[in-house]
């Protein structure tokens, strides 16, 4: 197995949608997520607008020509509603956004057969390397023990909890300071 990780921008990533849907479907079908076809479709409706956002970038892992992992996001706008989904109060300074301060990491997923081989770490490193943002923020299910362990190992700290969309489970909001 020779996995390569490529840094891509919006249009290139959009062209990989069918493969990335497969990555998402396989990665998030398992507990604690239990996501099915309707969840995949909802995620990729968002994806189609996300790839068009200013500053969008993705790190996609390939085994040959097959996508086996993905990590993507973009800088949060000054008017982002992300902080409005928190269930815990946080200091105003933590919530402050200016369109450059925070890179939002919206998805990070690896197909089950390629896990525990350093693929997620390589994608994350590729994605955040060279960012001119001060920090990276993500949401993660507290029950996702392996993901949580990786995030902590990479330097993320939990800053609160959120219900990121109506009907969603509670997520931990985690921040990685880059400066």
Structure description:
- The protein is of the alpha+beta class and 179 residues long.
- Helix content is 31%, strand content 28%.
- It has 6 helices and 7 strands; from the N terminus they run βαααββαβαβαββ.
- Strands 1-2-3-4-5-7-6 form a 7-stranded mixed beta sheet.
- Strand 2 and strand 3 (66-75) form a beta hairpin.
- Helix 2 packs across helix 3.
- The chain is globular and about 45 Å long.
- The protein starts with a strand and ends with a strand.
Name the descriptors.
28% strand; 7-stranded mixed β-sheet; 179 residues
- Helical content, roughly? 25-40%
State the end-to-end CA separation: 35 Å
Number of helices: 6
- Give the H and E element order: EHHHEEHEHEHEE
Task: Tell me the total number of β-strands.
Answer: 7
Shape: globular
What's the alpha carbon Rg, rounded to whole Å? 15 Å
Largest beta-sheet details: 7 strands, mixed
* Multimerization status: single chain
Spatial arrangement of strands, main beta sheet: 1-2-3-4-5-7-6
Going by helix content, strand content and strand pairing, the class is alpha+beta
Layout of strands and helices, then pairs:
Elements: E1 3-8, H1 10-14, H2 17-29, H3 37-50, E2 57-63, E3 66-75, H4 92-95, E4 102-110, H5 119-128, E5 135-140, H6 145-153, E6 157-162, E7 171-177
Parallel strand pairs: 4-5
Antiparallel strand pairs: 1-2, 2-3, 3-4, 5-7, 6-7
Helix pairs in contact: 2-3
How would you summarize what this structure contains?
With 179 residues, the chain is α+β, with helices and mostly antiparallel strands. The chain is built from six helices and seven strands. The chain has helices spanning 10-14, 17-29, 37-50, 92-95, 119-128, 145-153, and strands spanning 3-8, 57-63, 66-75, 102-110, 135-140, 157-162, 171-177.
